[in-house]
Amino acid sequence: MKIQKMYIDGQWMKAISGQTRQIINPFNQEVIATVAEGDESDTKAAIAAARKAFDQGNWTKTPATERGAIVRKIAELIERDKEELAELESLDTGKTVEESRVDMDDIAGVFRYYAELADKDGGEIIDSPIPNTVSKVVREPVGVCGQITPWNYPLLQASWKLAPALATGNTLIMKPSEITPLTTIKVFELMEEAGVPAGVVNLVLGAGNTVGAELSRNVDIDLISFTGGIETGKKIMQAASINVKKLALELGGKNPNVVFADADFETAIDQAMNAVFFHAGQICSAGTRLIVEETIHDKFVDALVERVTNIKLGSGFDEETQMGPLISAEHLEKVEKYVETGKKEGAKVVVGGKRPEDPALEKGFFYLPTIFTKCTTEMKIVQDEAFGPIITVETFTTEEEAIKLANDSIYGLAGGVWTNDLAKAERCVAQMRMGTVWINDFNVYFPHAPWGGFKQSGIGRELGKLGLEEYTETKHILHNLKPEPINWFK
Ligand code: NAD
Questions:
Q1: Which pLDDT tens digit goes with each residue over 181-238?
Q2: CA 67 to centroid of ligand 1, rounded, Å
Q3: Which of the chain's ends, N or C, has fewer CB atoms near its CB within 10 Å?
């Protein structure tokens, strides 16, 4: 099998050590690709290339309109190769091809959005209080960026980092998850085709504790943008302190979905299902904590169970499939352990709670969609991010109690509230401590709106104008038009 290579200083390279890694299809455990396995040496070479490209300044000094045109070209190439990319993403992650096609549209949309913003911020003249001075504020690129992505939305998460970094004139080194690097490799080919100059974008493949750790601690990196788990985020934060790198952290979530009795029942049920079982629950913003008003609890759970039983598990390439496998054997075991813990804590499995018995699925990392009732807020199954197809159901009787339960988490990524009482909805969202809150909706995001977390869900924002600002430093320039001696030190 051909070895897929890394991209450093405009060249496609094998790992210096010669090591490779096999990429596995989570549906049947077949090897789908062999890729170079880089380590600290390859990472240092990529950092040196990005540093050189930044310090030479060609990319930074390229007019913003031209940078925007290249970012737009990348969007066009992604649209051209949408089907190939979507199939590759599904092969690598197990998600349905239909879902991957939506991802590819979103990804092209992210490149298009930042292409349009590239030349829209020419700085600002501010009203100087000092006579005969001109005072202006401009934004400049941060410098060399290390970008580390997770396996659940490999290319989508990469696009949130690549597009704004390029639009603002930075250079970068990206490290995709070692489990799902295939679409990111392909997009580096497309960036080369779009005309991104050598050294500006670099791709190093490999493990977190080698490549990722080197990016986090290397003093030639000015900014680390990381999406992944909370424990990894803490390690990166610690390593990044060595040269006070700028940090952007998009960490996990344990997101509440609050349903009041006066909500539209059918829509709330339908969306509660989407909120958590999409991509087998492997979504940072999955609505895993269902918080339902006591009076509708039984009816709501019965309706959920009926629908959950009908979810069709299978290959992402089968049109009938609604849910694919989990990403890996290791992750499947983690999800199983959470379910066992939930049972020991006294929560009750009303559906699922095990691997499927269908022999057609036995080679894949499948887990049945699972609902826990009789949950209370202090339980581990309610507090920890299991990152699988699991809902916990809690109940409330008052608005205050609903808010208290929703906020009872170390995370603060996203949440939803379902009610037809608009004033109640506004009161609730004003008190919910999360970066995104949906009223009568769930899991909606687009390039124009910022995305990120309160509390331990992270630092900074991706998407929207704030996602662009993450990749800039702010400079204040004061120009004295009539310099004169001050005569303080005579
Ligand atoms: P992870 O933290 O295990 O890995 C993420 C990336 O970090 C991978 O590329 C990995 O190789 C790398 N890494 C691992 N150890 C490292 C180290 N010591 N130094 C530097 N890099 C290291 O996360 P995952 O399992 O790939 O992804 C799932 C997690 O990502 C979940 O917690 C999920 O909520 C989170 N996530 C968050 C968002 C968001 O927008 N907030 C989006 C997607 C995923």
A1: 999 999 999 999 999 999 999 999 999 999 999 999 999 999 999 999 999 999 999 9
A2: 29
A3: C
Under 8 Å between Cβ of 366 and 313: yes
CB of 160 within 6 A of ligand 1: the answer is no
Q: Which domain holds residue 227?
A: 3-251+457-476
Tell me the pLDDT tens digit for each residue of 93-144.
Answer: 999 999 999 999 999 999 999 999 999 999 999 999 999 999 999 999 999 9
**Catalytic status, residue 428:** no
Residue 134 forms beta bridges with which residues?
479
Please report whether residue 446 resides in a domain. no
For the question of residue 385 being annotated catalytic, the response is no
Same domain, 267 and 246: no
Buried b / exposed e across 434-451, counting CB within 10 Å, b at 16+? Answer: bbbbbebebbebebeebb
176 in Cβ contact with 206 (< 8 Å): no
Angle at 55 between CA 52 and CA 60, to 5 degrees: 115
**Between 182-194 and 64-80, two packed helices, what is the crossing angle to 10 degrees?**
130
Catalytic residue among 99, 250, 293, 394: 250
